[in-house]
C-alpha cells in the first residue's frame, strides 16, 4: 500500500484506513505481501516525520495517548502512544486526528453579520463589536442579561478562564455548556452520594474486575479503547462476566454474557430490584452499612430497614413487566453482580440522559456501596466521561451555572467567599443566584431575557433537544459563536463568528474519565487568522475592563493559577505542574505535591492522600465521612407513549462519527458511513408499513424528521433508534426537552414518537 502518496494528497482511502486500523490493533503494520508470513515487521512511520510528540486524542473521554508526527509545520502522522494507558491502541477517530486539522471548511477569519449575511471582518472589528454589545447589555439590563455557553471540548485553561471572567468579573453565573447535556446526572449522582464529583476508580480496575455491569453505555462504539481493555480482561480470564443493560443489541451487548434489553427510562426499577435481590440473598456488606453509609429519601433521613421496606416493592416479578425483561434474568444478574470477587460498573448516556438520570446514577453507586464492591482493585462504580475534557475542564473548574471550582456551589456563602478570596475580588462579587442551566439558558433566550451570548466549542442548534424551539431563540439573541469550522448549524444564527484554533494548534490540558490530567502540546499554527479560545477570552476580558482579573494569559500561566487554587480543596492537584505534564503520560488527581504519583482509588486511606484514618474508607466529601444511599422510586415516563405516539425514540451515536459531524462529516474516509437512519424492529416495521431503506417520517409532540429505515432485530420492539449526528436529518427537532429535576440534564433517550412511510406524509 502506498500510504505516503495518499497521505500527502491529504486523503486516506477507506481500504488504507482499514489496513492501518487492523495493523494498529495488533501493534504491527503489514508492509510486505499479504500472503505468506514473511511480511510482518514493526510499524514504520507512514511518511517522513521530523519529530514525534506525545499528546492526547481530541475525541472521546477515553483520552488515549497518541504520538503526533510533525514535519514542516504540519501534523503528518499520528499513532497510539505505547507508554500511555491505552498501550498504543487507538480507534478510527484516533487515527483521523491528523485528517481533522485539514478538513475543508476550517474557519479562517472573523465575520460580522451585515444586512442578514455574515461578512468577513478584522479581529479588531469583531471583538470591538462583541465587547460593545456585551457592555451595553450589562449596563442596561444587568450582568444576568449575558451568558457563556461552553463545551467539554475546550481545554481546562479555557473553561477555567471563561468561568472566572463571567462569575468573578462580569458577576453572572450564566455559565453552562454541553456537559449539562452529557455528564450532569453523573456529576449530580457522585456529588449527592460522595459529596464530591468524579469517579473513585481508574482504568486499572478493568484489569482486576471479575464482573462488568455495563449499563446505558455502548462502550464498544463510544469508548472503543476502554472496551478493548475490557475485552483483554475477558480474553485472559474467560469466566469474567459481562452484563449489558441496553434497549438495543449494540456491539457491546453482542459480547455480553447477559443482555437485558430494558425498556428506556426504567433503570430505577431495575436497580431497586437488584438491591432487593442483594438483601434477599444476604449479599449486604454489614460493615459498610454500619460504619460507612447513611440513608436518605430526598432530604429526609432514612435507615437500612427503610431501604429494605422500600425495595420490597420492587421484587423482580413486579419489575420485570415494567422493564420488559425476564424476572429470572434480573435474579441471575443481581446474583452475578454481588457474588463476583470484584464488580465494575460502567455507564454513560443511557443513564444520564433520562428524566431520572440522577436517581439511576445514585442507585448504581448504591449497588456498589451496599455490596462492598468499591474501593478495591476491580470493584468500582465508574461513569465514563463523554467528551475529551468534560470532567477536568468543566466539572472540576465548576464551569456550570450552579457551580464554582473544585466542587463548590454558588448557593453556599462560604464557597463564594472562598472563591472571591482566591480570585482576589471583593466579597459579594459572585452572585448567590445560580445561573441558567443549558435548557433554561435557551428558554431565557426564547423569552428575550438574555441579550448577548458567547457560544464556544459546541453546536447547540443541532445538539439541544427540541431543537427548533431553541433555534428560534438563538435568532432573537445577539449571538457570538467561536468555532473551528464554518459553517455550522449554530453559525447560521451568529451575529459575530470567531474562528478558533483546535487541538494541537493551541495546546492545553484535557482530563479523561479516570481523573487523569494530561497535556496536549501546541505543535502547529492554526489556519488563516484563527486564534485559540483562550486568546479570545483574554481579549474579551481586556475589552470589558477585566484585564486585571484575567492576569494569566498563556495556557501554562492559567494552569499554574488553577493548580494552586486546587490546593485549597479536596481535589488538590497542586503537584501536577506543567513540567510534569510535559514529561509524564498524565497524572490522576489528587496529587498534592510534586513528588506524588497520583491517585488510583479515591477515598481509600493509604491510597488517596486526602483520606484520613485507617478505616476502609474516608468519604471526606461528606461532613460525616459517610456515603449516602438514596431510596428512589421509579417515576412514570416524562414523555409517555400514547395511542398517538406509541413508540419510544432513543438517540445516540455510531462508532465512526463525532456528534454534529462538523469535523468527521468532512472526512472523505468516512463518507460511506451514513447517519441519517432509524432502526426499527421488524414487528414495528410491519405494523407501520415501513420498508427497509425507505424514508420514514418520525413525529413527536415537538417536531418531525425524515430518516431512512433500517429494519433490524437489534432493538427492542416498541423502541426505535437514531443517531443525532446528521445535520440534514436534525432528529433533535423530535427529541424530548424534559430535564432531570436535580441535574437538569435533558431526557435525550426517551421521546414518544410515531412513524410512517415518508412518502405518505402530507
Ligand atoms: N463514536 C463516538 N464516540 C463517542 C462520541 C461520539 O459522538 N461518537 N461522543 C462522546 C460523548 S460526548 C459521549 S457523552 C459518549 C456517549 O457514549 P454512550 O452513552 O455509550 O453512547 P450513546 O449512544 O449516546 O448511548 C448509550 C446507550 O444507551 C442506551 N440506552 C438508551 N436508553 C437507555 C435506558 O433507558 N437505559 C439503559 N440502561 N440504556 C439506555 C442506548 O441504546 C445506547 O446504546 O460517547 C463519547 N464517544
Ligand atoms: N439527540 C441527542 N442529542 C444529544 C445527545 C444524544 O445522545 N442524543 N448527546 C448530547 C451530548 S452527550 C453531547 S456531549 C452534545 C454534543 O453536542 P455539541 O457540543 O453541540 O457537538 P459537537 O459536534 O461536538 O460540537 C462541537 C463544536 O465545536 C467545534 N470545535 C471543535 N474544536 C474546537 C475548538 O477547539 N474550539 C472551538 N471554539 N470550537 C471547536 C466543532 O466544529 C463543533 O461545531 O450533544 C448532546 N445532544
Ligand atoms: S477511544 Fe476515544 S480517545 Fe481513544 S482513540 Fe478512540 S476516540 Fe480517541
Ligand atoms: Mo457527551
From TrEMBL:
Mo-bis(molybdopterin guanine dinucleotide) binds at residues 93, 153, 178, 182, 265-267, 349, 353, 459, 506, 533, 732, 749. This is Periplasmic nitrate reductase. One of its GO terms (biological process) is Mo-molybdopterin cofactor biosynthetic process. Keywords: 4Fe-4S, Electron transport, Iron, Iron-sulfur, Metal-binding, Molybdenum, Nitrate assimilation, Oxidoreductase, Periplasm, Signal, Transport. It catalyses: 2 Fe(II)-[cytochrome] + nitrate + 2 H(+) = 2 Fe(III)-[cytochrome] + nitrite + H2O. The lineage of its organism: Bacteria, Pseudomonadati, Rhodothermota, Rhodothermia, Rhodothermales. Its EC number is 1.9.6.1. Substrate binds at residue 724. SUPFAM superfamilies: ADC-like, Formate dehydrogenase/DMSO reductase, domains 1-3. Binds 1 molybdenum-bis(molybdopterin guanine dinucleotide) (Mo-bis-MGD) cofactor per subunit. HAMAP family: Nitrate_reduct_NapA. The gene is napA. InterPro entries: Asp_de-COase-like_dom_sf, MoPterin_dinucl-bd_dom, Mopterin_OxRdtase, Mopterin_OxRdtase_4Fe-4S_dom, Mopterin_OxRdtase_prok_CS, Periplasm_NO3_reductase_lsu, Prok_molybdopt-oxidoreductase. Catalytic subunit of the periplasmic nitrate reductase complex NapAB. Receives electrons from NapB and catalyzes the reduction of nitrate to nitrite.
Amino acid at each position: 500500500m502506498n500510504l505516503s502518496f495518499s497521505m500527502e494528497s491529504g486523503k486516506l482511502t477507506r481500504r488504507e484506513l482499514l489496513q492501518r486500523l487492523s495493523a494498529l490493533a495488533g501493534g504491527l503494520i503489514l508492509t510486505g505481501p499479504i500472503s505468506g508470513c514473511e511480511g510482518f515487521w514493526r510499524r514504520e512511520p507512514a511518511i517522513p516525520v521530523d519529530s514525534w510528540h506525545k499528546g492526547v486524542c481530541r475525541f472521546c473521554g477515553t483520552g488515549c495517548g497518541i504520538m503526533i508526527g510533525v514535519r514542516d509545520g504540519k501534523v503528518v502522522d499520528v499513532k497510539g502512544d505505547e507508554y500511555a494507558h491505552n498501550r498504543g491502541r487507538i480507534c478510527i477517530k484516533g487515527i483521523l486526528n491528523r485528517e481533522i486539522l485539514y478538513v475543508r471548511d476550517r474557519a479562517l477569519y472573523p465575520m460580522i453579520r451585515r444586512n442578514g449575511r455574515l461578512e468577513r471582518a478584522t479581529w479588531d472589528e469583531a471583538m470591538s463589536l462583541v465587547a460593545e454589545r456585551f457592555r451595553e447589555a450589562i449596563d442596561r439590563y444587568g450582568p444576568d442579561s449575558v451568558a457563556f455557553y461552553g463545551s467539554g471540548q475546550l481545554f481546562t485553561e479555557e473553561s477555567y478562564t471563561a468561568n472566572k471572567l463571567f462569575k468573578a468579573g462580569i458577576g453572572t453565573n450564566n455559565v453552562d455548556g454541553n456537559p449539562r447535556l452529557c455528564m450532569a446526572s453523573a456529576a449530580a449522582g457522585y456529588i449527592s452520594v460522595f459529596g464530591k464529583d468524579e469517579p473513585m476508580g481508574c482504568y486499572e480496575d478493568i484489569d482486576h474486575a471479575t464482573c462488568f455491569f455495563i449499563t446505558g453505555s455502548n462502550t464498544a462504539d463510544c469508548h472503543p479503547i476502554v472496551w478493548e481493555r475490557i475485552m483483554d480482561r475477558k480474553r485472559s480470564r474467560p469466566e469474567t462476566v459481562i452484563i449489558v443493560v441496553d434497549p438495543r443489541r449494540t456491539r457491546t451487548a453482542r459480547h455480553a454474557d447477559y443482555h437485558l434489553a430494558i425498556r428506556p427510562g426504567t433503570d430505577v426499577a431495575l436497580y431497586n430490584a437488584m438491591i432487593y435481590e442483594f438483601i434477599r440473598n444476604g449479599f449486604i456488606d454489614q460493615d459498610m452499612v454500619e460504619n460507612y453509609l447513611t440513608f436518605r429519601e430526598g432530604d429526609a433521613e432514612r435507615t437500612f430497614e427503610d431501604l429494605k421496606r422500600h425495595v420490597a416493592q420492587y421484587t423482580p416479578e413486579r419489575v420485570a413487566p415494567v422493564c420488559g425483561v425476564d424476572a429470572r434474568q434480573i435474579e441471575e444478574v443481581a446474583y452475578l453482580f454481588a457474588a463476583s470477587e470484584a464488580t465494575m460498573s460502567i455507564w454513560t448516556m443511557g443513564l444520564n440522559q433520562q428524566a431520572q438520570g440522577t436517581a439511576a446514577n445514585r442507585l448504581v453507586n448504591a449497588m456498589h456501596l451496599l455490596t462492598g464492591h468499591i474501593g478495591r482493585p476491580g470493584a468500582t462504580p465508574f461513569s465514563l466521561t463523554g467528551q475529551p475534557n468534560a470532567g477536568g475542564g468543566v466539572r472540576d473548574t465548576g464551569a456550570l451555572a450552579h457551580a464554582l471550582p473544585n466542587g463548590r456551589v454558588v448557593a453556599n456563602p462560604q464557597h463564594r467567599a472562598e472563591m472571591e478570596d482566591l480570585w482576589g475580588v471583593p466579597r459579594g462579587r459572585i452572585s448567590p443566584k445560580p445561573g441558567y442551566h443549558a435548557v433554561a439558558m435557551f428558554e431565557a433566550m426564547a423569552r428575550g431575557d438574555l441579550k448577548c451570548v458567547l457560544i464556544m466549542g459546541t453546536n447547540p442548534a443541532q445538539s439541544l433537544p427540541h431543537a427548533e424551539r431553541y433555534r428560534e431563540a438563538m435568532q432573537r439573541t445577539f449571538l457570538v459563536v467561536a468555532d473551528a469550522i464554518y459553517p455550522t448549524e449554530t453559525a447560521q444564527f451568529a451575529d459575530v463568528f470567531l474562528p478558533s484554533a483546535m487541538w494541537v494548534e493551541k495546546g492545553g490540558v484535557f482530563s479523561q474519565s479516570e481523573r487523569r490530567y494530561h497535556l496536549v502540546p501546541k505543535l502547529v499554527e492554526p489556519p488563516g487568522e484563527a486564534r485559540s479560545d483562550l486568546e479570545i477570552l483574554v481579549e474579551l476580558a481586556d475589552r470589558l475592563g477585566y484585564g486585571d482579573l484575567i492576569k494569566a494569559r498563556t495556557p501554562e500561566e492559567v494552569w499554574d493559577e488553577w493548580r494552586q487554587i486546587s490546593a485549597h480543596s479536596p481535589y488538590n492537584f497542586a503537584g501536577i505542574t506543567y513540567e510534569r505534564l510535559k514529561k509524564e503520560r498524565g497524572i490522576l488527581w489528587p496529587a498534592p505535591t510534586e513528588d506524588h504519583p497520583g491517585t488510583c482509588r479515591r477515598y481509600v486511606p493509604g491510597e488517596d492522600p486526602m483520606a484520613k484514618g485507617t478505616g476502609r474508607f474516608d468519604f471526606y466529601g461528606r461532613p460525616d465521612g459517610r456515603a449516602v444511599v438514596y431510596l428512589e422510586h421509579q417515576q412514570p415516563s416524562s414523555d409517555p407513549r400514547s395511542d398517538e405516539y406509541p413508540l419510544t425514540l432513543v438517540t445516540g451515536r455510531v462508532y465512526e462519527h463525532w456528534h454534529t459531524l462538523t469535523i468527521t462529516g468532512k472526512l472523505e474516509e468516512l463518507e460511506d458511513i451514513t447517519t441519517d437512519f432509524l432502526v426499527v424492529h421488524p414487528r414495528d416495521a410491519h405494523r407501520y408499513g415501513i420498508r427497509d431503506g425507505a424514508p420514514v417520517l418520525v413525529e413527536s409532540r415537538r417536531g418531525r424528521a425524515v430518516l431512512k429505515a433500517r429494519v433490524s432485530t437489534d432493538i427492542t420492539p416498541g423502541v426505535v433508534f437514531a443517531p443525532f449526528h446528521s445535520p440534514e436529518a436534525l432528529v433533535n427537532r423530535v427529541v424530548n426537552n424534559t430535564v432531570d429535576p436535580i441535574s437538569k440534564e435533558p431526557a435525550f433517550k426517551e421521546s414518544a414518537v410515531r412513524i410512517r412511510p415518508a412518502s405518505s406524509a402530507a
